[in-house]
Amino acid sequence: MQIARFAHGDNPRYGIVDGDDLVVLKSDPLFDSYETTGERVPLDGARLLSPVIPRSKVVALGRNYADHVKELGNDLPTAPVVFLKPNTSVIGPDDPIVLPEWSQEVHYEAELAVVVGRLCKDVPAERVNDVIFGYTVANDVTARDIQRAEDQWTRAKGFDTSCPLGPWIETDVDVSDLSVRSYVDGEQRQDGRTSQMIMSVHEIVAYASSIFTLLPGDVILTGTPAGIGQIDAGQRVEVEVEGIGRFGNPVVRR
Ligand code: MG
After folding, report:
1. Which of 14, 162, 199, 251 could bridge to 141 as Cys pair (CB 3.0-4.6 Å)?
2. Interacting residues of 148 by C-beta distance below 8 A, sequence separation 6+
3. Cα(15) to centroid of ligand 1, in Å?
4. Where residue 68 sits, what CATH number does that domain have?
């Protein structure tokens, strides 16, 4: 099942993708039920929003694909590199990525993202499925020049608009071997597979829950494959995970 969040009158609404339509839900199924309003909205005309706005955090894993670690000239991590992106970094499909004035080298990073469904802590890897609501697609937008220059990655990866999420949450998908791709102006740039991850999705969620209490709606980014590169104002960057979906954002500089 694919659950989209979309603009509808004054308030965001939730809908289940059913063919060419969204079946409108009465409330947010992450916190409530799948009860429908009886309305159907054409998917074509709906303005999709970020499928979730995390109430507390986006947890992200760095350097989780060996080929990507090599392309940046880094050594394979002996322990996972974990960082946070604030919920104010989250934007949805077609929202502009605003390049910060203090960076001259902003990169895209296509990633599989986990949406947490339950409050949890210290979840064993074998029980991770119990706490996952579904999966979505993320772009871990990164100011690479700032990431190189500063020890902490907070400024490089936490600025406004640096976490596009979309196009919806897929609740039924086997994520063990899916293609992860990005495109700039329609030209393919990344083409990895989730099977190339150093830490598996189950290990990542278990590890994150050993550090943080995870809340419903928290999002966990699982790392990016090789092929990262720069985006400039005027371009459109898209990210895609097989079996979940594809969406894009225009890049602007203000
Ligand atoms: Mg990343």
Report:
1. 162
2. none
3. 28
4. 3.90.850.10
Which H or E run contains 170?
strand 163-170
**How close is the Cα of 67 to the center of ligand 1, in Å?**
13
Q: Strand, helix or coil at 244?
A: coil
Q: How far is the CA of 66 from the centre of ligand 1 (A)?
A: 13
- Please tell me the distance between residue 111's alpha carbon and the centre of ligand 1 in angstroms: 7
Question: Same domain, yes or no, for 179 and 236?
Answer: yes
CA 149 to chain centre: 25
Backbone angles phi, psi at 67, to 5 degrees: -65, -35
State the residue range of the domain holding 233.
58-253
Looking at residue 155, what is its pLDDT?
Answer: 98
- Domains: count for the chain: 2
Cα 4 to middle of ligand 1, angstroms: 23
pLDDT tens-place values along the chain, 254 residues long:
999 999 987 889 999 999 999 999 999 999 999 999 999 999 998 999 999 999 999 999 998 998 888 888 888 877 789 999 999 999 999 999 999 999 999 999 999 999 999 999 999 999 999 999 999 999 999 999 999 999 999 999 999 999 999 999 999 999 999 999 999 999 999 999 999 999 999 999 999 999 999 999 999 999 999 999 999 999 999 999 999 999 999 999 98
Return the CATH number at 23.
2.30.30
Residues 72, 26 share a domain: no
* Cα of 32 from ligand 1 centre, angstroms: 31
Distance 88 CA to ligand 1 centre (A): 17
**216 domain-assigned:** yes
Report how far Cα 234 is from the mean position of its chain's Cα atoms. 22
Both structure tokens of 198: 């150093």
